[in-house]
């Protein structure tokens, strides 16, 4: 978690203050449930809520932990200082530290998921707006970095939208994975605490009870969560890479937004670097690096070992904070991306019509020219384009052998962009729904 | 993909024969759809089905590919040899190689997922049966490898069941991720082929049309698929590690099945190695190793580059074949695992009752003994157990200061296993449904 | 980088203060070299050293960076505030930001490597001391977690020593990898700066000039560096796992040190958790997680893109700080590990001599008994041990068919531990040198 | 290991035939050493060499293994069939299977390293040749994909040479890591075999004795080996990515070789895809995927568990075969890469001199123009270039305010490529040695 790649909203989820607040809520709700069951006096349960509006003193808790070497005990000691030692004496009864720690972690992951979802929503909204805006902006499609057939800039935005929309669904499921809590005691048997307490606490904290826990909540849930973040991060890299390509000097079909006042832009107007998307590429690597340790965390010895804990202390904040930042950075880039339709058209025409050679070849054979002859005709005109800088269509129209087979109008038709873009609406309807297919921006 | 860690059913999915069969079906269905649209003659579409029962000659196709350097063209050439060059002349019209390759890959992944699901089903069935069998077999729960509180062997099986059941749900979703096909042409615009063809082919092949493809199906789907396999593999390692621990000499609470005739077992009866579960630990690492390259595959340049292809040629078969084998190996281990309830009881009693010290401590304080005194009483009797090998309960019953506070019957009660196991039914009902909670096997 | 898993010495290397100090030194040395070449006035070069003992004001630099959006420019502006704008006007002349950033990063990595080396030295010293101390402490060797043949605790320490000693050599090479600097300008051509400046700066900073750089120092060096940290971390996990096994309740051959005053130890004397080594297992995962992004960083577009930068901002500090902490934690664990030789002997005797069955079998065949008969004789006595708890040697000595072939003295000899440990000295001489082989601690 | 990405030389190293041949040599040399020590009769040792020229029957060994479930025993049985049961009766005496398996694995890895080194040599030779060929071929240097300052194509080749040369050194060290053997018995104590046997076998097999082994050779060595392969693979991706960029339509500064007969090249002359380098990008991911499991393999339980074995059965062949293939594919690409110097010059001139704006700005200030004025002068001429397609130098020469400060000759000088390339020789001398700096190819 690096300050410059962090948004305060997400950082706050992982602050000690938030953690202690969640711990408090878990303990207080647990007391309520125990009081309800008659296990502890109702007055004591009520007393705990005295701390409801208190600010927990992180420095004080650290001080106690320095002595007790135990974070939950340190917190409980501080809580007793607020609530009163006698009133607080039933707090945590029958519970184990992991009941609090694991339930808290999942609350934090759920909140992190909610923020990430908002980031994805923003990315999707930006992609959709730009897709609709450029639905019909022609652009050359490229396979292997080489010109292939025409497509549109809108389709590029739309496919990233579709990917990010899938990521929304994945994130929703990943959130479901970790939306469980456990208050089940030292080895998960509820020996010293009634399962009702778990049910009550989970309901209050927005979680489901973990059907079967040991001392801890099983870590396959968290592995799935972080694996999903890795997939989302890879999607960010995918979009960022497209933009990096578009901005490179020789392509220059789009640029990250450059504020007018930014220095250097006018003396070296070509030197605007896609640093945000390059940065996103790096951030994607960082988020992905959480996946393997999360998978390694799944295996615990017997009812628990604590190897997973240090990993989660790192990747919990790191992966969510970095991904959150990256999503908003990406959204900003897309929202303000400067698109150059004219440059797209220029690039498409770079080889003066050659991208249409396939269609001409097909048309010639369909007009009855043998495959070999058709190939020869296309080739000799293509070579003039390639070697002498001629225009393909002009050459074809001037080649009597070609026009003998294909009337000029048909040749013209082969260079019609509309042929390639006729199903853009269909695709938009699939991606955004029927109402967005034809309207444009 | 290593023969000794492979099952033929899964290997078959990735054979050239299967691949060519799927290619054929895609091409034949595409012809049907084109004929339906009137784009190609119905007779030609029907003619293609002449190859329906043919066996494609892999060696012949390889031979052609050696010349053409293109696998799909080699296949189409061979298909024409079967169907007739003239009849076959409309096959693949308007399509791009990736239409066939990517749709085929997803068919293979879906079939692989189906086999994996069967493996998971078998694992779950085995875990459930053993869980019910040992629902009430007491065993010491361990945190940090150290004795904590009693649990049961059934709960151990049940928690692995719950994890594997989650893995079933994850696999079902992963299958959904890749259950798409695309017949959309060189850059995904349907320039040369009607979207109806895609719909028809997908319906016939059990897939959904990819809403928006480029030249390829987007690779975030595959990333999610392989990430899910990584989570499942980690779950296998989790269960395997538990068994490895149980079988180690000093614990010996269970053993992988050893056939009676297996040599060496009687001269060195202690030397039965948990080699299957150790092997599963290694196989889990292999399956997991597919996750990162699959994530790296998500980013493609523009409408496609082919960097993903070599990766998938490897991890497609490797990860699914290895995981399939591992699931069945794990199922076999669990089905035949030799469980030693007596050894479990002996291990639990290793410290002659000391695991109950916590309950005694609590009982003393609840009986009005001060916390300090209670601690002192427990400690002095615990130390006799620890240092002199005495029995904890016996010592407590013989300590007048203890019995003054706690009547013998109450002391006896603190050593009652039933206290710890009273909620086993509740947990089983959560995991297996209410009907399995009380009945046993 | 998590405070609780950090040592201040390593954290300091990555502080802004240290970074600015290194930047300053690079710039000042560069001015010296330029003055030497006559490119800038000597007075200006000397003036820069006015800042030698200054403390750079991080808040002020941040403030400037908030405006300029450029960290190096912000630093240079602040430097000019200290040195004097006019005096400082030649600072950084002909250089590019990466010249400073990359050279600084490598200085930091070298310093980090030096600290890590000190950590490895401490680990090695501890392992060596404990190896010599327990050179002759017998312990059962285990394959697959199952008793195999006797070894000694000293050999266990010695093999971890040998591994960590290899890690020292690897780290020394990894440090060499990154001990380069570059002052070569915007694309590495020295267009605006003489190569002599690079040589001078590198010599002063303890680095070698990078033979060929672009805008940046090539990242394969850093990849190798972090990959090496991953190997070292895995070695830590290896040692930690051994200790976790030794401490588990049923084995209990050693324990992490527990201070006498630590609460709970006497009421539940069995409940001492190997939390430090479990923690080390998790920390190892974290350090390893830096390896893949470091490998992904190797590929940069043309003369540089900045995707690597965010990755390094994270893994630079994270991996070195975590590994540094882990090395010292491991050293502390080993230095104070409480070893129980008696428990080791008890565990070895758990099957009352059965581990020697192999030697007896061999002796019988060598004495002329047929392989089948020898097996039968061993087996029938082994079974008494296994099933009735008898002592293997006693049974053999009481079996007339056995004693007919092997005189009692020879049977006795087969149970001699010395047979197994006779080459311990040889191995120690290999690992620690001849002088340590026989002396003991 | 995929046939199409394999070279037979490397595949052969991992064949059963080779493995059995190495096993044989280990066993035969061990017998020699034992005979020398007088432990077994010399005649029996000599007899084993009867199998020296035999071909081991893989099918027969498989057949035996199907019964014995043990590969080494199956081999020894077959060996006895060749040598004679009686003559062979001392083979493997005192040894454990891992002695053979681990020593064999390291022999295979050393041989694999030798082949990989040959591949790296070929890559380096190709890079050096092309570097010398294009030492002075000007090309625009790019940071962030954006034009920066001129460099040369030779420098690009030279930096990949330098990286690959480092990879040679790394590979040499990685080979050293695994060039050890162990013949030390069940737990590494040499209980049943004299250390001399190990020394003898290792000397004969080209290995060093492992100073301290357990049942196995420690796996940190293999981790370092595979981590090094991962770094080399990343270097391949780095070079491949450069070529992919050069070949993209808008850049087209170089192309993978296209044989004249290759179809399609003349009708669509622009459609030559960099499929080899894209493929190399994928292969790099595959090789890298071996790193994490190799790191996870380091931790073994006590004196060994067998979790590492299945991993090595896969990554041993897979990573070496794939990397070997990739190195030769890369070498072929570089050897035959079609370089377009004219296109490089055209790209450099794309913005008609604007890349020199920085030098002009500097020259103006050095000529006494204030920083603000100099910037204004450069900017107004730069804008004509950017917006109206003018030529920068022409505009500057026509701007009286500019020429008032800078005489035309000086302006001309600022556009001199020689300024940028003056240190190319220096860099070449650093990379290739002094003799290659000035001579050219």
Automatic annotation (TrEMBL), chains A, B, C, D:
<comment type="similarity">
    <text>Belongs to the lyase 1 family. Adenylosuccinate lyase subfamily.</text>
</comment>
<keyword id="KW-0658">Purine biosynthesis</keyword>
<protein>
    <recommendedName>
        <fullName>Adenylosuccinate lyase</fullName>
        <ecNumber>4.3.2.2</ecNumber>
    </recommendedName>
</protein>
<dbReference type="Pfam" id="PF10397">
    <property type="entry name" value="ADSL_C"/>
</dbReference>
<dbReference type="InterPro" id="IPR004769">
    <property type="entry name" value="Pur_lyase"/>
</dbReference>
<dbReference type="InterPro" id="IPR008948">
    <property type="entry name" value="L-Aspartase-like"/>
</dbReference>
<dbReference type="InterPro" id="IPR000362">
    <property type="entry name" value="Fumarate_lyase_fam"/>
</dbReference>
<comment type="pathway">
    <text>Purine metabolism; AMP biosynthesis via de novo pathway; AMP from IMP: step 2/2.</text>
</comment>
<dbReference type="GO" id="GO:0005829">
    <property type="term" value="C:cytosol"/>
</dbReference>
<dbReference type="GO" id="GO:0070626">
    <property type="term" value="F:(S)-2-(5-amino-1-(5-phospho-D-ribosyl)imidazole-4-carboxamido) succinate lyase (fumarate-forming) activity"/>
</dbReference>
<dbReference type="Pfam" id="PF00206">
    <property type="entry name" value="Lyase_1"/>
</dbReference>
<dbReference type="InterPro" id="IPR019468">
    <property type="entry name" value="AdenyloSucc_lyase_C"/>
</dbReference>
<dbReference type="GO" id="GO:0004018">
    <property type="term" value="F:N6-(1,2-dicarboxyethyl)AMP AMP-lyase (fumarate-forming) activity"/>
</dbReference>
<dbReference type="GO" id="GO:0044208">
    <property type="term" value="P:'de novo' AMP biosynthetic process"/>
</dbReference>
<keyword id="KW-0456">Lyase</keyword>
<comment type="pathway">
    <text>Purine metabolism; IMP biosynthesis via de novo pathway; 5-amino-1-(5-phospho-D-ribosyl)imidazole-4-carboxamide from 5-amino-1-(5-phospho-D-ribosyl)imidazole-4-carboxylate: step 2/2.</text>
</comment>
<dbReference type="InterPro" id="IPR020557">
    <property type="entry name" value="Fumarate_lyase_CS"/>
</dbReference>
<dbReference type="InterPro" id="IPR022761">
    <property type="entry name" value="Fumarate_lyase_N"/>
</dbReference>
<feature type="domain" description="Adenylosuccinate lyase C-terminal">
    <location>
        <begin position="352"/>
        <end position="432"/>
    </location>
</feature>
<dbReference type="InterPro" id="IPR024083">
    <property type="entry name" value="Fumarase/histidase_N"/>
</dbReference>
<dbReference type="GO" id="GO:0006189">
    <property type="term" value="P:'de novo' IMP biosynthetic process"/>
</dbReference>
């Amino acid at each position: 978690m690096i300050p410059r790649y962090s948004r305060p909203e997400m950082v706050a989820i992982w602050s000690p203050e938030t953690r202690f607040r969640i711990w408090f809520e878990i303990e207080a709700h647990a007391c309520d449930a125990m009081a309800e069951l008659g296990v502890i006096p109702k007055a004591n349960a009520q007393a705990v809520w005295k701390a409801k509006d208190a600010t927990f003193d992180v420095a004080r808790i650290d001080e106690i932990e320095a002595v007790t070497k135990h974070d939950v005990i340190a917190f409980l000691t501080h809580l007793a200082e607020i609530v009163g030692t006698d009133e607080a004496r039933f707090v945590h009864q029958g519970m184990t530290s992991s009941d609090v720690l694991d339930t808290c972690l999942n609350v934090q992951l759920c909140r992190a998921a909610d923020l990430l979802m908002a980031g994805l929503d923003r990315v999707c909204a930006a992609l959709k707006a730009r897709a609709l805006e450029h639905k019909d902006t022609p652009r050359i499609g490229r396979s292997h970095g080489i010109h292939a057939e025409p497509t549109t800039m809108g389709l590029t935005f739309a496919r990233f939208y579709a990917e990010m929309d899938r990521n929304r669904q994945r994130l929703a499921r990943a959130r479901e994975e970790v939306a469980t809590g456990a208050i089940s005691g030292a080895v998960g048997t509820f020996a010293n605490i009634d399962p009702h307490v778990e049910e009550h606490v989970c309901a209050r904290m927005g979680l489901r009870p973990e059907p079967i826990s040991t001392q801890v909540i099983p870590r396959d849930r968290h592995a799935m969560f972080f694996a999903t973040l890795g997939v989302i991060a890879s999607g960010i890299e995918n979009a960022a890479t497209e933009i990096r390509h578009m901005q490179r000097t020789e392509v220059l079909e789009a640029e990250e937004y450059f504020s007018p006042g930014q220095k250097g832009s006018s003396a070296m107007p070509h030197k605007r670097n896609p640093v945000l998307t390059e940065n996103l590429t790096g951030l994607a690597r960082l988020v992905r690096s959480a996946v393997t340790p999360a998978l390694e965390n799944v295996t615990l010895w017997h009812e628990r070992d604590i190897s997973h804990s240090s990993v989660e202390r790192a990747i919990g904040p790191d992966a969510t904070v970095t991904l959150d930042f990256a999503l908003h950075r990406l959204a900003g880039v897309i929202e303000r991306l400067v698109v150059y339709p004219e440059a797209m058209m220029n690039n498409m025409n770079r080889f003066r019509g050659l991208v249409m050679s396939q269609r001409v070849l097909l048309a010639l054979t369909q007009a009855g020219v043998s495959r070999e002859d058709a190939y020869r005709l296309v080739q000799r005109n293509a070579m003039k384009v390639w070697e002498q800088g001629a225009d393909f269509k002009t050459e074809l129209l001037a080649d009597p052998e070609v026009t003998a087979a294909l009337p000029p109008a048909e040749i013209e038709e082969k260079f019609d962009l509309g042929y390639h873009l006729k199903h853009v609406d269909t695709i938009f309807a699939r991606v955004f729904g029927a109402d967005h297919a034809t309207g444009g921006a």
